[in-house]
Amino acid sequence: MVNARVERRGGGRPLLLVHGWAGCRRHWYPVADRLAAAAESWLPDLAGHGARTADRGEDLFEDLAGMAPAGAVWMGASLGGLLALRAALELPGRVAALVLVSSTARFLGDRHWPGTATAVLEDFRSRLARDRQQLLADFDAGHAGAGVRAAAGLAAVRACRRAEPLPAAEALVAGLDLLEHTDLRSRLVELGIPLLLLHGGADGIIPATTVAAMRRLYPAAAVAVQPQAGHAVMLSHPEWVAARVLEFLQLHADA
After folding, report:
1. pLDDT by residue (tens digit) across 28-44?
2. CATH of the domain at 43
3. What is the domain count for the chain?
4. Which domain range does residue 202 map to?
5. I need a labelling partner for 167 at 20 to 30 A (CA). Which of 64, 80, 109, 138 fits?
6. Is the pTM of this model over 0.90?
7. Is position 102 annotated as part of the catalytic site?
């Protein structure tokens, strides 16, 4: 079922899948289709993205929280993972369990935390004002990973890009603001729900070493790393992601 804000596929336990910066719901299709017998996937486009490019002024977090089913498992990729983690911390009882894919509690890195350099976001802001289309093309190219799946993963990312209008510039800026300023590391101890961390070992945007750093802050987290996957592991290795998520859902069926 599709409406202007969220698409739903499959049947079973509600699973909210949140795409990342400059993405859209289509990034999750290969995983959602493989989970169709076990979960009802809720696939929103964040405001200003995908089918919602006209919704440019809405707060990304508040908008997302307003369409999420109660008691769902939340799964977020990159920026979507930051939003999902924030929801788990700020909306107690609304999030039953959490899966972070290519994501982290703090996007920016420093000498104490693995992450993206501040200069990268500054460059994104500058280029966004000059040539949004070229910026997004270059950003997509950085998702590929390594090995035999790299070309297929990149092709899948580019196919998603062609299928929808470019994200609204205002929404992209709002996403960059969240990536720059959100820091949930000190609050991970408050989480209190099952957490699964999935990451690509060849992620060139959020390094795979982030997984170990996250687990030091939340030792109960389950972890799986696909060695050859890049940032878009859900597109390059959807069967691997779906298998790990299915195991997680079965293990925490009562959460």
Report:
1. 999 999 999 999 999 99
2. 3.40.50.1820
3. 1
4. 6-251
5. 109
6. yes
7. no
